[in-house]
Write a structure and sequence with these properties.
Blueprint (H helix, E strand, L loop, with lengths): L1 H24 L6 H19 L10 H26 L7 H28 L3 E7 L2 H4 L12 E8 H6 L10 E5 L3 H14 L2 E4 L3 H7 L2 E3 L6 E3 L7 H37 L4 E7 L5 E7 L24 H8 L7 H7 L3 E3 L6 H10 L12 E3 L1 H5 L6 H13 L3 H14 L17 H9 L1
Parallel strand pairs: 1-2, 1-3, 3-4, 9-10
Antiparallel strand pairs: 5-6, 7-8
Helix pairs in contact: 1-2, 1-4, 2-3, 3-4, 8-14, 9-11
Length: 444
């Protein structure tokens, strides 16, 4: 079914290209038509894979439509831009716009149809959630938002699993496990495999590190070599060159928007447009990050570092707009050009917040193995309010598989979340995350 949808998308492009564009560029019978259609097909395929556009059963219908339509839009825009550049003329965009409209309609019809068929054929799995503490149980609360995929039949503390035989779990089709000790988890993994049960296990930081470890074959026992990440010099040079070129292009393109944003901030309350804040990058080095100010000038006059909350009254009306469209992040292009940051990497934390997280999760400092970035795994696959423990694991996943291809996939993935509100949702109101706050508690 997914292949059929993909082929229909490519076929629709072929028809519009051959009927409306190819004759005007002068090669209606040329092999170049096959090259252009092939380029379009490859782009749509890669973007659909990047956005998980065909993850039926796990993604909502709306997310599938959005991801598929974004893949089509970016691919059509790329082909249109390349066509105009190649023949140095501006072609009529109407056929491309009509093509996109037809493809979006096809995406809507297909996503609704395939999702209904999927859930009619495959009923929700009887599922047990095994957890160590209530706090860890909250980390997987999102699965309850997908009742058509998983029917949560039981929530079982891991102590009960220790006391009873694992055979009590045989009645379930799927198991989610979080926070248990290694011995019980290993036994549960084996039990799921032996009995054909789908097991979903939230990894710990050590699991993610081992997943990227080097396999040593020189001895008669299997060994995994774990050490501090040291990317190849060739990769670092290419990554730095890409950062310089991308940031320069970004500054040129974004300069009108940055000028308008700066003027709007200044006109609103006469305060400074740029906000400087100390952040951490590779090996714990401190630097001043540049952002457009989205909050009141006195947002932290009490000296307490706070993450933005869901209904934060410190955010100005102008700030709400620029945060929604991510314009507040644009000055960081200068940080990237200077070399303090990279386009892709773990987001830089404030020193005081990083210290608190490190006290709670000592492995949190492992994010500092690489240079901080404008976007990364946690931004593409997580949210602003994602648990720091989970952010760490996402960042370690990136560190494990750093490559130019991974960076490109995350950049395209960032385009997908630009207009998704939940990716910038604040933490719960009143949540304070800084060592300063801990000191204040101690003074009371």
């Amino acid at each position: 079914m997914n292949t059929g949808h993909f082929l229909l998308i490519v076929l629709s492009f072929w028809i519009v290209w051959m009927e409306n564009v190819a004759p005007s560029v002068g090669f209606a019978e040329s092999r170049y038509n096959i090259y252009v259609t092939g380029l379009y097909a490859v782009m749509v395929f890669i973007l659909n894979r990047t956005y998980n556009s065909y993850l039926v059963g796990y993604m909502s219908v709306g997310d599938m439509i959005y991801s598929q339509s974004l893949s089509c839009t970016l691919s059509v825009l790329a082909v249109y831009a390349l066509t105009c550049l190649a023949w140095v003329r501006l072609y009529n965009p109407i056929p491309f716009l009509l093509l996109l409209a037809g493809q979006i309609l096809l995406n809507i019809l297909w996503s609704n149809f395939i999702t209904r068929v999927y859930f009619r054929v495959i009923p929700p799995k009887e599922t047990a959630v095994i957890y160590h503490s209530d706090e860890e149980l909250q980390r997987i609360r999102e699965i309850e938002n997908n009742p058509k995929k998983f029917h949560i039949a039981a929530r079982i503390p891991d102590e009960r699993i220790r006391e009873n035989n694992l055979d009590s779990l045989k009645q379930y089709e799927a198991i989610f496990a979080v926070g248990m000790e290694a011995g019980l988890r290993n036994a549960l993994i084996q039990y799921c495999v032996d009995n054909g049960i789908q097991g979903y296990f939230l990894p710990e930081a050590g699991d993610v590190i081992l997943a990227g470890a080097q396999h040593i074959q020189s001895y008669s026992v299997p060994l995994l070599n774990v050490e501090r990440k040291a990317p190849d010099p060739e990769f670092l040079i290419l990554k730095r060159l890409f950062d310089i070129v991308a940031s320069l292009i970004g500054i040129v393109i974004a300069s009108p928007f940055m000028l308008i944003t700066a003027l709007a901030i200044r006109l609103y309350d006469r305060g400074p447009a740029i906000y400087r804040q100390v952040r951490l990058t590779r090996n714990g080095k401190e630097f001043e990050i540049l952002k457009f100010r989205s909050m009141r000038v006195d947002a932290e006059k009490d000296g307490v570092a706070r993450l933005t909350t869901e209904h934060d009254d410190r955010i100005t009306p102008v700030g709400k707009v620029i945060r929604a469209v991510r314009f507040d992040e644009l000055p960081q292009l200068f940080n990237i050009l200077k070399g303090d940051m990279s386009i892709v990497g773990p987001r830089p934390e404030r020193p005081e917040i990083a210290r608190q997280y490190t006290e709670e999760f000592p492995a949190f400092a492992l994010r500092l193995q690489v240079k901080a970035g404008l976007t990364g795994y946690a931004q593409v696959y997580g949210r602003y309010n994602t648990d720091p423990h989970d952010k760490l694991q996402m960042d370690l996943m990136y560190i494990n598989k750093m490559s130019i291809m991974t960076d490109m996939m995350l950049i395209f993935g960032t385009l997908r979340i630009l207009f998704l509100r939940e990716s910038t949702s604040g933490v719960e109101d009143g949540h304070i995350t800084a060592s300063v706050a801990e000191e204040q508690k101690g003074d009371k």
